[in-house]
Amino acid sequence: MSFEIKGWCPGALRPMQSGDGLILRIRPPNGRLLPAQVRAIAEVSARLGNGLIDLTQRAHLQLRGLDAQGHALAIATLGGLGLLDDSPAAEARRNVLLNPFAAPGGPAWRLAAELSRRLAAGDAPDLPGKFGFAVDLAPPLLAEAPADIRLIPRDLGWTVHPDGADWHLAGADPVAEALALARWFITRNGTRRGRMRDLAARAPRPPGARPGPPPQAGPRPQPGALPQGRLLGFAFGQITAAQLAAIAAPLRLTPWRMLLIEGGAEAGARILGAIEAPGDPLLRSHACTGAPGCPQARGTTRDLARALAPLAPGSLHVSGCAKGCAQPAACDLTLVATAPGRYDLIRRGRAGDPPCRRDLDPAALTNLIRQQSADDASL
Questions:
Q1: Residue 379: which pLDDT band, with cuts at 50, 70 and 90?
Q2: Residue 252: strand pairing partners
């Protein structure tokens, strides 16, 4: 199955064309939005887009369904909200994911802000479009989130980890160490491979590297009341403009396609359609936009994923094509659309892996998944 790998993510200043119009991605500083920004983004989505907003695994917001005129008007609004970079290049480099539970003004918050500032500067390393950084807390929660360089607090300082490597850097200035590691990636021709994980496993270690295992993620947070506020999930990471407009408190974006609404438990109680129950099967189900919203998708995705989620005994991914954008990692069951109403099935793998069953319709898939629940060997 053929598909196009673009190698870059959309931005606000450089949107991406999709099947339902332009995709405009907003990268809020440190992943936090104030109530006035939330209301304005919801209004832009409803008035200039199609009213659908994606929550990405990089803790960004994507507004869908804009046309060229709507994009220009949206940029004017976002610029007044402090949500734009100076250039598309600066925007693309400022790809910093902060642990959403970091205290505003705390050490991790300040470090992420300084790293973002340095990446947006003109002398920052010229990194690939999907290259990213994660600033975590202890114990770490972002080890499975997409990032090429991870900054983890340890003792009284920080360690800087290339993704997937069994070594790290530890210096007095973690931002400088992270940028030095990014430049090492470039000098070692890492841009040809695209991601740090592919390079760090094979290339000679840089000076100052210390042995140590990569960070391991703790349990994924679940919806509910937390000391920082209320965590709410949204099926397949999509929220409507109306749902967003109902949030009257500061919010933080997360890489788990959930929103952290700051304040008391009542802060998220009025968001109709949000997932509030821990263990909801939709929380372990992934689905991209699918057809017709994505021009590369061979079939629809989310209606099928919603129907199968309660039946699937583990994680589920329904992908419109073999690229697997919604979930790059392996799932217990992955379904890949091959034509309208037809899907290949992959067990414990990714969308691009060889399928164990081909050309199944939704009824056959439903029967197979029900059978697996009774007998895991049936697939």
A1: low
A2: 32, 260
Contact by Cβ (8 Å): 116, 132: no
How far apart are the C-alpha atoms of 64 and 236, rounded to whole Å?
15
Residue 264, pLDDT above cutoff 70: no
Domain 281-378 has CATH 3.40.50.300: no
Q: How many CB atoms lie within 10 A of CB 362?
A: 17
Q: Which residue has the tokens 């917001």?
A: 61
Burial 79-112 (b: 16+ CB within 10 A, else e): eebebbbeeebbbbbbbbbbbbbbeeeeebbebb
Q: How far is CA 164 from CA 146, 176, 200, 256, in A?
A: 11, 20, 7, 20
d(CA 309, CA 214): 32
Closest CA to 104 of 252, 227, 209, 237: 252
User: Which residues on adjacent β-strands are paired with residue 89?
Assistant: none
The CB density around residue 179, as the number of other CB atoms within 10 Å, is: 21
Q: For the chain, what percent of residues have pLDDT higher than 90?
A: 83
pLDDT the model gives residue 36: 97
Mean pLDDT for the stretch of residues 174-190: 95
Extract the tokens encoding 73. Answer: 């008007």
Do residues 253 and 60 make contact, with C-beta atoms less than 8 angstroms apart? yes
List the beta bridge partners of residue 134.
97, 150
For residue 17, the 8-state DSSP code is E
The Cα–Cα gap between 1 and 355 comes to 12
* Cα 344 from Cα 354, distance rounded (Å): 9
- The bridge status of strand 133-135 relative to strand 96-98 is parallel
Sign of the Cα torsion 28, 54, 255, 24 reads: negative
Domain ranges of the chain: 16-87+224-268, 102-211, 281-378
* Residue with token string 């470039």: 186
Residue 135, pLDDT above cutoff 80: yes
Model confidence band, residue 378 (pLDDT cutoffs 50, 70, 90):
very low
- Tell me the two tokens of residue 286: 């992934």
Residue 190, exposed/middle/buried by CB under 10 A (0-12, 13-18, 19+)?
Answer: buried
Specify whether the CB–CB gap between 163 and 214 falls below 8 A.
Answer: yes
16-87+224-268 has which fold?
Answer: Sulfite Reductase Hemoprotein; domain 2 (3.90.480)
